[in-house]
Amino acid sequence: MISLSQHASLFDDQRANEILDIIAKETGVERGLLTPEATLDELGIPSLDLTQAVFEIESHFDVEIPVVADREGAEFTTIGGLVAHVLTTLDRAATRRASGEAA
Amino acid sequence: MRFKRRVAITGLGAISALGTGNGITTGTGAVLDAMRTGRGGIGPITHFDASRLSVKIAAEVPGFSPEAHFDRRQLLMMDRVSQFAVVAAREAMAGIDRAAYQPSRCGVLMGASLGQTTIDASYHALYAENAARLPPLIIPRTMPNAPASLIAMEFGFTGACFATASACASSTHAIGLAGQMVQSGMLDLVICGGSDASLCLGYLKAWDGLRVLSQDTCRPFSRDRSGLVIGEGAGVLVLEAWDQARARGASVQAEFLGFGMNADAGDLTAPSAQGAAAAIQAALDDAGLAPPAVDYVNAHGTGTRLNDRTETQALHHVFGRHAVRLAVSSSKSMHGHCLNAAGGIEAVVTALALRDGLVPPTLGHREADPECDLDYVPNVGRRAPIGVALSNSFAFGGLNAVLVFGHAP
């Protein structure tokens, strides 16, 4: 589990800002309410809106984001968790691309 | 005989090739205007490149702007078929005070209708453009009950809600069942009808193969008729328990009197005069009316050789000597064959005919056919008081459905 303070630092990442912009646009939730600890439940974000947001994030970064719903530690409970999950995926994809290019 | 409550038709909504409502008139106003003036909505296909079709005409809804009715997030969930359904339902509900009803006593019954243009576009992206992935909401957008569910969500109705599937009789079945649910006391108010938006290459190419489409135009009951013309749109009615509607001072457009339905159990596509006649008879029996009570029939009248002949035979069979006194017209000659929405739009036409004493014309009629020898109100509508009217739907699958409406006293 990533701690809240780690989330806060994650939000300094420029990519996190882009992710939050997309979530705000697709869910209709005010950008300022998308804090690391805010839960999707509290924000009233329905699952289909989240699915649409993830689709747009995938398009934006040209990456496939695996969705592991309801797994232990439920990554998608909070905005911070979601952003962390996307950033991890982006880092992994970048590593894969780099090694692919090297090979 | 079982107890039945009276049923009032208190709201009408339409979107069709005849118009969508433009601030000056409503979608229903556009239908009424076309009935008066004999204006048709069939023309060359403009919404997509039809060069690969052998038939290049349709009855397209002109100038519909989804953004004028829905925000971006709503539109992610809504195929064109649902957009039509909700816009027509809003028109039908415009004058109705919802506070007079408990949400659990209000329902929605719509003809089942797939989101064809969304399916077409997604398959194109997948097969022709090798898309790696598709937008995530295609399934909820395209499911055949989406129009019904989105109407229920729009109005917060929590009573019975589902979609009926019987091809070109789907919305007539929906309206008939809705009427019976109000008659029985199961519901007090039902939004019912149908919506269809299937004008896309993949779907029309499939229709091309059946060789029932006209390259010319829709000429029901005319000797030189050459087939049907596919249209798009929505037709929606609000049915309410009569006493409750009157108590709240509703303006009643017409009365729902009865409904008949059956199956030919013969051929999957060829119509049966016997089956159609039995459905008409069942509808009259349900309404408790003798054949001479009927003044007007909104025919299924597709404009195919076979339908128009068998429908005429069925009318002769049921009405006997009274058949020649009926006014029979096919409004498909104006708004095209709107498939899953056909019965809904035609029920709106039938209710308007009763309300305003206006018999709609059969457009494109050029030549009498010895096998179609009734009064089809050729090309020009007429003023005439109508006491009782039928709306016929005889669908592929051999599924027949007939509505009986009456002038509201």
Q: What's the CATH topology name of chain A?
A: Non-ribosomal Peptide Synthetase Peptidyl Carrier Protein, Chain A
CATH class of the largest domain in chain B: Alpha Beta
Biggest chain contact: A-B, 10 and 8 residues
Largest sheet of chain A: none
* Order of helix and strand elements from N to C terminus of chain A: HHHHH
Mean pLDDT of chain B: 96
> What structural class is derived from the secondary structure elements of chain B?
alpha/beta
Cα(first) to Cα(last) distance of chain B is: 24 Å
The percent of residues in helical segments of chain B reads: 25-40%
Number of strand elements of chain A:
0
Mean pLDDT of chain A comes to: 83
The CATH homologous superfamily name of chain A equals: ACP-like
> In CATH, what is the class of chain A?
Mainly Alpha
Shape of chain B: globular
List the helices and strands of chain B in order: EHEEHHEHHHEHEHEHEHEHEHHEEEE
Oligomer: heterodimer
Number of strands of chain B: 14
Question: How many domains would you count in the coordinates of chain A?
Answer: 1
- Output the strand order for the largest sheet of chain B: 5-4-6-7-1-8-14-13-9-10
**How much strand of chain B?**
15-25%
What does this structure look like?
The complex is a heterodimer of chains A (103) and B (409). Chain A has one domain: Non-ribosomal Peptide Synthetase Peptidyl Carrier Protein, Chain A (Orthogonal Bundle), CATH 1.10.1200.10. Chain A has five helices and no strands. Chain A is globular, with a radius of gyration of 14 Å. Chain B folds into two domains: 241 residues, 3-Layer(aba) Sandwich (Peroxisomal Thiolase, Chain A, domain 1), CATH 3.40.47; 149 residues, Peroxisomal Thiolase, Chain A, domain 1 (3-Layer(aba) Sandwich). Chain B is built from 13 helices and 14 strands. In chain B, the strands form three sheets. A ten-stranded mixed β-sheet of chain B has the order 5-4-6-7-1-8-14-13-9-10, with helices on both faces. A two-stranded antiparallel sheet of chain B has the order 2-3. Chain B starts with 6 loop residues before the first strand and ends with a strand. The interface between A and B is small, with 10 and 8 residues.
